[in-house]
Amino acid sequence: MIIIPKKSLGQNFLVDKNIIKKIISVIQIENKSILEVGPGTGNLTSAIISKKPKQIFLIEKDHRLISLLKKEFEQKVNIIQNDVLKIDENKVCKDKLIVFGNLPYNISTEILCRWVLNLSNKNPWFSNLILMFQKEVADRILSDYNTSNYGRLSIVANWRLNVKKIFDITSNCFYPKPKVDSSLLFFSPKKNFFKFQNPNNLEKITRIFFQHRRKMIKKSFKQIFSEYIEVSDKYKVNLNLRPQNINFDTYYKLTQEYENLRS
């Protein structure tokens, strides 16, 4: 059965066997519960099965691929036919999951932000995420303040997760060959992090700041805080700086301040 990848679903199937071997060697998965997002034609799935996990869940939206995966793996996997953005991850499995994903380029940042902002304060549903992103997106996730790539994505991701790059993956490793290279990132939940009444407020605050990323932050402060001078003095923030000059912790503190003033 020949599957023609759908551009509308951002499908680029990983086909390089050496890269697949390297991915499944990143973490010990024997007797662990695994979730794979976007298994495609099952190349990575097959390699995961060979490592003898406890159970495997696959999230796949494309009905053509569902048929292929059912035929290929029969009783070895649990297939969830749905859009990954519409699933309650907490209900997939009682165990903490190790997640593998060759995420569709067109929704990869939306998936990551949704997972982070919906995390329980006490008990994240996963132990680790091993995810592939377009290299440019991965660079944004990994970026630190005072760099051009620093922005909302790095601030949201680093709020709850420790992040490190494992390796880059060239476009030749995929079919069809994309126009850009990818990077494999490894995430683990942080034990200590800033607590928010509603994590979506972090997304809101960073959106306001970075919609004018080349301008001084005074305008954003005015928009968020009625007593903006007092708030900037309290957190020792120079209002002549630009959004990329403000470190992670300051954004988290400003979000808490925003929530405290509203409650």
Report on the structure:
By secondary structure, the chain is of the alpha/beta class. The protein has two domains: 7-189, Rossmann fold; 200-262, rRNA adenine dimethylase, C-terminal domain (Helicase, Ruva Protein, domain 3, Orthogonal Bundle), CATH 1.10.8. The protein is built from ten helices and nine strands. The chain has helices at 17-24, 43-50, 63-73, 108-117, 135-142, 152-160, 200-210, 218-224, 228-234, 248-262, and strands spanning 13-14, 33-37, 55-60, 78-81, 97-102, 126-134, 161-169, 174-175, 182-189. Strands 4-3-2-5-6-9-7 form a seven-stranded mixed β-sheet. The chain has a two-stranded antiparallel sheet with strand order 1-8. α3 (63-73) links the parallel β3 and β4 (78-81). α1 (17-24) packs across α2 (43-50) and α8 (218-224) crosses α9.
Put the structure in a nutshell.
The protein is an alpha/beta fold and 263 residues long. The chain has helices at residues 17-24, 43-50, 63-73, 108-117, 135-142, 152-160, 200-210, 218-224, 228-234, 248-262, and strands at 13-14, 33-37, 55-60, 78-81, 97-102, 126-134, 161-169, 174-175, 182-189. Helix 1 crosses helix 2, helix 4 (108-117) crosses helix 6 (152-160) and helix 8 packs across helix 9.
